[in-house]
Amino acid sequence: MSTRPLRLGIAGLGRAFSLMLPTFIGDPRVTLAAATDPREDARRQFESDFGGPVYPGIEELCADRTIDAIYIASPHQFHARHVEIAANAGKHILVEKPMALDLAECRSMIDSARRAGVHLIVGHSHSFDAPILRARELIASGQYGQLRMITALNFTDFLYRPRRLEELNTKEGGGVVFSQAAHQVDIVRLLAGGKVRSVRATTGNWDPARPTEGAYQASLNFEDGCFATLTYSGYGHFDSDEFLEDIGEMGEQKDYAAYGKNRRQLEAVASSDDEALLKASRTYGGRNFKLPSEQPRPAHHQHFGLFIASCEHGDLRPTPSGVAIYGDFERQLERLPPPLVPRSEVIDELHAAVFDDRAPLHSGEWGLATTEVCLAMLQSAAENREISLQHQVGCA
User: How many CB atoms lie within 10 A of CB 295?
Assistant: First the structure.
């Protein structure tokens, strides 16, 4: 196993990069080596913070021979093309979720990586979170019998956070199914072994000013008979973090005094251009962005709402503190130590793939299968019918 840091190039210094930055800064296995982004402010800050070169485009970034892997955090609609460029340059790839906007793009990404002999990892999704991985281990152990049912629920204000115009257009990858269901589906597939047989879903699009899906409910049936129900609302009223020790998605203590803050900010925005500028101000390079070193380290694990895995002899509930176990005769909380580095599990997979040639769990094939479920949710809602799936893969 190599002990040298992995030299990572960044394609896109926006919101996704901002959320991964505490991991990249905190994990000694990573060096932020170079970057590209269309925003001059972001490029300038990267040079100042990390001393690495910034490039005018992804082609020049991938031509840098000192880089081991590329983190593709560009907008969803560019993922397929950017993966092809990185793979053709011989770079291993970590691409943000959703993997792509259709299955043909997913297949082209997988083919590009395979032809080039590089690894393709899809993430971050919250299926990397340590409590989810521990719940998966407990299910796989068989000590609570076979997994029969999963319940997933998350209520947030996702739709009222500042957005670029395409993020409110489903055809361009906007809405909660592409951006948020990818987390929920990934987790449920991981817990249940991966292979979804069919999907039945309904979506909600209730605000003409935000004309995309803001909510969904879905029923997933797995090949082994397990079934799952997924509920998500991004309409910013009830907050399901109340069910999770009042801990927010990023592991921070919830501040309920900020309730409605994002809606109030949007009321002061005069146009879609102004809203895009507001979003940019809160991401890397923006005037309101704070480096992780300027923020308190979360004392809890990240999460994506409530999950209950119902086995024959117990229910398992991942929490920000560990896994709550409800057995036949006793209830306990198996605590997990708080993370020293958030999302370090992503680096576990990436580092092992690059230096040990270890096949990642969150591979391109895995990402395609999750995308297939998300697309089936949209199709099921549009056509009012159950959709059978054809491209599912299991997890070891």
Answer: 11
